Amino acid sequence: MIEWGEIVLETLRNGPALLCDGLDAVGVSCSKQVLAINIWHLILSFTIFALVSSTIYFIRKHRRLDQYSNLLEMTTPYGAASEARTIRVNPHDFANALGEQGFDGLSKVDAATKLNEKYGGRYFVVEVRERGRKILSKELKVVAWWHRLKTAEFQADPETLDLIKAGSKSLLDDDLGDSYGADGTFDIFFRPVKIWDIRHWLNHPAREIRYALYVAIFAAFLEYSSDIIDMFRALFRTP
Predict the structure, then answer these.
(1) Mean pLDDT of the chain
(2) pTM of the model
Protein backbone atom coordinates (compact mmCIF):
# COMPACT_ATOMS: atom_id res chain seq x y z
CA MET A 1 0.00 0.00 0.00
CA ILE A 2 1.46 3.34 -1.06
CA GLU A 3 1.78 5.78 1.83
CA TRP A 4 0.32 9.26 1.67
CA GLY A 5 3.78 10.84 1.99
CA GLU A 6 5.09 8.96 -1.04
CA ILE A 7 2.15 10.14 -3.15
CA VAL A 8 2.72 13.77 -2.13
CA LEU A 9 6.46 13.57 -2.80
CA GLU A 10 5.89 12.01 -6.23
CA THR A 11 3.44 14.78 -7.09
CA LEU A 12 5.92 17.41 -5.96
CA ARG A 13 8.70 15.86 -8.02
CA ASN A 14 6.65 15.90 -11.22
CA GLY A 15 4.71 19.12 -10.65
CA PRO A 16 7.60 21.63 -10.93
CA ALA A 17 8.90 20.02 -14.11
CA LEU A 18 5.48 20.22 -15.75
CA LEU A 19 5.10 23.88 -14.78
CA CYS A 20 8.55 24.79 -16.05
CA ASP A 21 7.95 22.90 -19.29
CA GLY A 22 4.92 25.10 -19.81
CA LEU A 23 6.95 28.24 -19.14
CA ASP A 24 9.66 27.05 -21.56
CA ALA A 25 6.99 26.80 -24.23
CA VAL A 26 6.36 30.54 -23.97
CA GLY A 27 10.07 31.40 -23.83
CA VAL A 28 10.56 31.73 -20.05
CA SER A 29 13.09 29.47 -18.33
CA CYS A 30 12.75 28.49 -14.66
CA SER A 31 16.55 28.51 -14.38
CA LYS A 32 16.77 32.16 -15.35
CA GLN A 33 18.15 34.18 -12.44
CA VAL A 34 16.09 37.07 -11.03
CA LEU A 35 17.71 38.91 -8.11
CA ALA A 36 19.95 35.90 -7.39
CA ILE A 37 16.98 33.50 -7.35
CA ASN A 38 15.28 31.76 -10.23
CA ILE A 39 11.76 32.05 -11.58
CA TRP A 40 10.60 28.86 -9.87
CA HIS A 41 11.67 30.15 -6.44
CA LEU A 42 9.81 33.40 -7.04
CA ILE A 43 6.62 31.54 -7.98
CA LEU A 44 6.98 29.22 -5.00
CA SER A 45 7.66 32.02 -2.51
CA PHE A 46 4.64 34.00 -3.71
CA THR A 47 2.39 30.91 -3.54
CA ILE A 48 3.49 30.02 0.01
CA PHE A 49 3.04 33.64 1.14
CA ALA A 50 -0.48 33.76 -0.34
CA LEU A 51 -1.46 30.46 1.27
CA VAL A 52 -0.11 31.40 4.71
CA SER A 53 -1.69 34.87 4.57
CA SER A 54 -5.10 33.56 3.52
CA THR A 55 -4.99 30.87 6.23
CA ILE A 56 -4.16 33.40 8.95
CA TYR A 57 -6.87 35.73 7.66
CA PHE A 58 -9.42 32.91 7.68
CA ILE A 59 -8.50 31.94 11.26
CA ARG A 60 -8.45 35.45 12.71
CA LYS A 61 -11.20 37.24 10.80
CA HIS A 62 -14.87 36.83 11.65
CA ARG A 63 -16.75 38.32 8.72
CA ARG A 64 -20.17 39.89 8.34
CA LEU A 65 -21.57 39.24 11.79
CA ASP A 66 -24.21 41.89 11.05
CA GLN A 67 -25.94 39.26 8.88
CA TYR A 68 -26.67 37.16 11.97
CA SER A 69 -28.41 37.91 15.28
CA ASN A 70 -28.27 41.46 16.57
CA LEU A 71 -29.17 43.57 19.58
CA LEU A 72 -29.35 47.22 18.60
CA GLU A 73 -29.03 50.43 20.63
CA MET A 74 -28.06 48.64 23.82
CA THR A 75 -26.78 50.26 27.01
CA THR A 76 -24.80 48.75 29.87
CA PRO A 77 -25.53 50.95 32.90
CA TYR A 78 -24.60 48.32 35.51
CA GLY A 79 -21.32 47.00 36.80
CA ALA A 80 -19.52 43.94 35.45
CA ALA A 81 -21.09 40.48 35.43
CA SER A 82 -19.46 37.91 37.69
CA GLU A 83 -18.99 35.21 35.03
CA ALA A 84 -15.90 35.34 32.80
CA ARG A 85 -16.31 35.70 29.02
CA THR A 86 -20.03 36.34 29.32
CA ILE A 87 -22.62 38.88 28.21
CA ARG A 88 -25.96 38.97 30.01
CA VAL A 89 -29.01 40.22 28.11
CA ASN A 90 -32.72 40.60 28.72
CA PRO A 91 -34.46 37.24 27.98
CA HIS A 92 -37.02 38.71 25.59
CA ASP A 93 -34.33 40.64 23.70
CA PHE A 94 -32.31 37.44 23.42
CA ALA A 95 -35.27 35.43 22.12
CA ASN A 96 -36.14 38.08 19.52
CA ALA A 97 -32.51 38.31 18.35
CA LEU A 98 -32.36 34.54 17.87
CA GLY A 99 -35.74 34.42 16.14
CA GLU A 100 -37.18 32.16 18.86
CA GLN A 101 -40.98 32.11 18.97
CA GLY A 102 -43.39 31.86 21.91
CA PHE A 103 -41.45 33.87 24.48
CA ASP A 104 -43.48 37.10 24.49
CA GLY A 105 -46.08 35.63 26.82
CA LEU A 106 -43.54 34.20 29.29
CA SER A 107 -42.23 35.94 32.37
CA LYS A 108 -38.58 37.00 32.40
CA VAL A 109 -37.71 34.13 34.75
CA ASP A 110 -39.43 31.47 32.63
CA ALA A 111 -38.02 32.87 29.40
CA ALA A 112 -34.49 32.98 30.84
CA THR A 113 -34.75 29.41 32.14
CA LYS A 114 -35.93 28.06 28.81
CA LEU A 115 -33.35 29.95 26.76
CA ASN A 116 -30.43 29.06 29.00
CA GLU A 117 -31.32 25.38 28.84
CA LYS A 118 -30.71 25.61 25.10
CA TYR A 119 -28.00 28.24 24.77
CA GLY A 120 -26.46 28.68 28.22
CA GLY A 121 -23.45 26.45 27.59
CA ARG A 122 -22.69 27.66 24.06
CA TYR A 123 -20.16 30.23 22.91
CA PHE A 124 -20.93 32.90 20.35
CA VAL A 125 -18.73 35.03 18.14
CA VAL A 126 -19.68 38.50 19.39
CA GLU A 127 -18.97 41.90 17.86
CA VAL A 128 -19.75 45.18 19.64
CA ARG A 129 -20.05 48.41 17.67
CA GLU A 130 -20.69 52.01 18.56
CA ARG A 131 -22.31 54.08 15.81
CA GLY A 132 -21.06 51.61 13.21
CA ARG A 133 -17.49 51.58 14.53
CA LYS A 134 -16.26 48.19 15.75
CA ILE A 135 -15.07 48.22 19.36
CA LEU A 136 -14.32 44.54 19.89
CA SER A 137 -14.79 41.08 18.43
CA LYS A 138 -14.38 38.02 20.64
CA GLU A 139 -15.97 34.74 21.68
CA LEU A 140 -18.35 34.98 24.62
CA LYS A 141 -21.27 33.21 26.21
CA VAL A 142 -24.55 35.08 25.76
CA VAL A 143 -26.82 34.41 28.74
CA ALA A 144 -30.49 35.31 29.25
CA TRP A 145 -30.58 37.22 32.55
CA TRP A 146 -33.86 38.00 34.25
CA HIS A 147 -32.62 39.97 37.27
CA ARG A 148 -32.74 43.75 36.89
CA LEU A 149 -31.95 43.93 33.18
CA LYS A 150 -34.56 45.85 31.24
CA THR A 151 -35.14 45.81 27.50
CA ALA A 152 -32.09 47.07 25.55
CA GLU A 153 -29.78 46.65 28.56
CA PHE A 154 -26.88 44.24 28.99
CA GLN A 155 -24.03 43.35 31.32
CA ALA A 156 -20.55 42.19 30.37
CA ASP A 157 -17.78 40.40 32.24
CA PRO A 158 -14.99 42.62 33.68
CA GLU A 159 -12.53 42.14 30.81
CA THR A 160 -15.14 42.74 28.11
CA LEU A 161 -16.58 45.73 29.95
CA ASP A 162 -13.11 47.29 30.20
CA LEU A 163 -12.62 46.83 26.45
CA ILE A 164 -15.96 48.48 25.74
CA LYS A 165 -15.08 51.43 27.98
CA ALA A 166 -11.66 51.84 26.39
CA GLY A 167 -13.03 51.56 22.85
CA SER A 168 -16.04 53.85 23.21
CA LYS A 169 -15.85 57.47 22.20
CA SER A 170 -16.83 58.63 25.65
CA LEU A 171 -13.97 59.46 28.02
CA LEU A 172 -16.20 59.63 31.09
CA ASP A 173 -16.01 55.91 31.88
CA ASP A 174 -12.37 55.12 31.07
CA ASP A 175 -11.14 55.36 34.65
CA LEU A 176 -14.19 53.85 36.34
CA GLY A 177 -13.94 50.44 37.99
CA ASP A 178 -15.94 47.28 37.40
CA SER A 179 -18.76 48.56 39.62
CA TYR A 180 -19.75 51.05 36.91
CA GLY A 181 -21.08 50.44 33.42
CA ALA A 182 -19.97 51.95 30.13
CA ASP A 183 -21.15 55.32 28.84
CA GLY A 184 -22.75 55.08 25.40
CA THR A 185 -25.13 53.14 23.17
CA PHE A 186 -23.91 49.99 21.47
CA ASP A 187 -24.95 47.47 18.84
CA ILE A 188 -24.20 43.79 19.49
CA PHE A 189 -23.94 41.27 16.65
CA PHE A 190 -23.42 37.57 17.32
CA ARG A 191 -23.64 34.05 15.95
CA PRO A 192 -22.99 30.61 17.48
CA VAL A 193 -19.44 29.27 17.19
CA LYS A 194 -19.19 26.81 14.29
CA ILE A 195 -17.11 23.65 14.13
CA TRP A 196 -14.85 25.30 11.52
CA ASP A 197 -13.99 28.27 13.76
CA ILE A 198 -10.34 27.25 14.19
CA ARG A 199 -9.56 30.15 16.48
CA HIS A 200 -12.18 28.90 18.94
CA TRP A 201 -10.48 25.52 19.30
CA LEU A 202 -6.97 26.98 19.54
CA ASN A 203 -8.16 29.29 22.35
CA HIS A 204 -10.80 27.00 23.82
CA PRO A 205 -11.88 28.09 27.34
CA ALA A 206 -11.66 24.48 28.56
CA ARG A 207 -7.97 23.97 29.26
CA GLU A 208 -8.17 20.19 28.82
CA ILE A 209 -9.55 20.51 25.28
CA ARG A 210 -7.04 23.23 24.37
CA TYR A 211 -4.03 21.23 25.63
CA ALA A 212 -5.27 18.03 23.99
CA LEU A 213 -5.41 19.86 20.65
CA TYR A 214 -1.90 21.27 21.09
CA VAL A 215 -0.55 17.80 21.92
CA ALA A 216 -2.27 16.31 18.87
CA ILE A 217 -0.79 18.99 16.58
CA PHE A 218 2.68 18.50 18.06
CA ALA A 219 2.44 14.71 17.75
CA ALA A 220 1.30 14.98 14.14
CA PHE A 221 4.20 17.32 13.37
CA LEU A 222 6.68 14.84 14.87
CA GLU A 223 5.09 11.95 13.00
CA TYR A 224 5.33 13.65 9.61
CA SER A 225 8.35 15.91 10.21
CA SER A 226 10.59 13.93 7.84
CA ASP A 227 7.92 14.03 5.13
CA ILE A 228 7.49 17.78 5.65
CA ILE A 229 11.25 18.36 5.32
CA ASP A 230 11.41 16.20 2.19
CA MET A 231 8.44 18.09 0.79
CA PHE A 232 10.17 21.47 1.15
CA ARG A 233 13.41 20.10 -0.27
CA ALA A 234 11.49 18.86 -3.29
CA LEU A 235 9.65 22.17 -3.61
CA PHE A 236 12.75 24.36 -3.56
CA ARG A 237 14.79 22.10 -5.84
CA THR A 238 15.14 23.80 -9.20
CA PRO A 239 13.31 21.79 -11.88
Answers:
(1) 80
(2) 0.62
